[in-house]
């Protein structure tokens, strides 16, 4: 059994694995009274005046003491964060993407001072962006109810309402931040020559060279008339 759990954990991409382990560790520490959940919460005054900077990070790892709701959140993360991470060029790119999400959520929470726990907000933001980018994917809720991915971010908000009995302010913040990031990542980039302003710094110098059609390039003065689209391709066409 232990080997099966270890093998399952090792199959996860590194960022998802570390995030899941941190969530479980935080819940175990609080459930065993080794630390208080108040020491992990996001409290702007404590961060600014008491220099408790760990709260900037710890609030993203805590979903409550060990119970069915916390375990369900870990399940969501292990299932969907794996899929999202595998869609990036590297785990480092995914880590940067999570960092951007966390940074915007922190700014949002500083401005409105409405969220004590940012973990669920981060999940809601990630799921919102993923669902908008993959609207036709089908997701099984509780293993038997299939829905389109485009509605999934709202479904997890409704699930939180059923579990906790109240609308999650953190979940709503996640939807707002997720929509903002989706706009800049997809809509804004398509309107501005595929500029990805949210991509990691190490990708800034790797923007693809725009394709220039030879005929259009000649008309616009970018290429001499009759110039080949790709000199290497044209060279291959020449007889030996």
Please give a structural write-up.
The chain contains eleven helices and two strands. The protein has a two-stranded antiparallel ribbon. It is globular and about 55 Å long. α5 (68-86) crosses α7, α6 (91-112) crosses α7 (119-133) and α6 packs across α9 (169-191). It is mainly α. The longest helix has 23 residues, at 169-191. It has helices at 2-11, 14-31, 44-49, 55-58, 68-86, 91-112, 119-133, 152-164, 169-191, 214-219, 231-237, and strands spanning 138-141, 145-148. It has a single domain, classed as Rhomboid-like (Rhomboid-like fold, Up-down Bundle).
Highlighted features:
240 residues, mainly alpha, Rhomboid-like fold, two-stranded antiparallel ribbon, 11 helices, 3% strand, globular, Rhomboid-like_sf, transmembrane helix, Derlin
Strand and helix map with partners:
Elements (H helix, E strand, L loop, with lengths): L1 H10 L2 H18 L12 H6 L5 H4 L9 H19 L4 H22 L6 H15 L4 E4 L3 E4 L3 H13 L4 H23 L22 H6 L11 H7 L3
Antiparallel strand pairs: 1-2
Helix pairs in contact: 2-5, 5-7, 6-7, 6-9, 7-8, 7-9
Number of strands: 2
Summed up, the domain count is 1
Radius of gyration (Å): 23 Å
Which strand order spans the largest sheet, edge to edge or round the barrel?
1-2
CATH homologous superfamily (4th level) name: Rhomboid-like
Low-confidence stretches: 216-220, 231-236
CATH architectural grouping: Up-down Bundle
Overall geometry comes to globular
In a nutshell, what does this entry contain?
The chain is mainly alpha-helical and 240 residues long.
């Amino acid at each position: 059994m232990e080997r099966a759990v270890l093998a399952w954990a090792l199959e996860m991409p590194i960022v998802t694995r570390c995030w899941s382990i941190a969530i479980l560790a935080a819940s175990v520490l609080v459930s065993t009274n080794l630390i208080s959940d108040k020491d992990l919460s996001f409290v702007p005054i404590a961060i600014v005046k008491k220099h408790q900077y760990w709260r900037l990070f710890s609030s993203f790892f805590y979903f409550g003491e060990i119970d069915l709701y916390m375990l369900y959140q870990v399940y969501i993360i292990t299932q969907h964060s794996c899929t999202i991470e595998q869609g990036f060029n590297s785990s480092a790119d995914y880590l940067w993407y999570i960092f951007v999400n966390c940074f915007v959520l922190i700014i949002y929470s500083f401005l409105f001072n409405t969220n004590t726990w940012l973990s669920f907000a981060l999940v809601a933001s990630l799921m919102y962006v993923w669902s908008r980018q993959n609207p036709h994917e089908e997701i099984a809720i509780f293993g038997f109810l299939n829905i389109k991915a485009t509605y999934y971010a709202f479904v997890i908000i409704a699930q939180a309402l059923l579990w906790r009995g109240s609308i999650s302010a953190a979940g709503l913040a996640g939807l707002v931040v997720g929509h903002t990031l989706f706009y800049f990542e997809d809509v804004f980039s398509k309107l501005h020559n595929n500029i990805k302003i949210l991509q990691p710094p190490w990708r800034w110098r790797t923007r693809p060279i725009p394709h220039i059609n030879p005929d259009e390039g000649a008309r616009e003065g970018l290429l001499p008339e009759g110039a080949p689209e790709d000199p290497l391709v044209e060279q291959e066409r020449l007889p030996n």
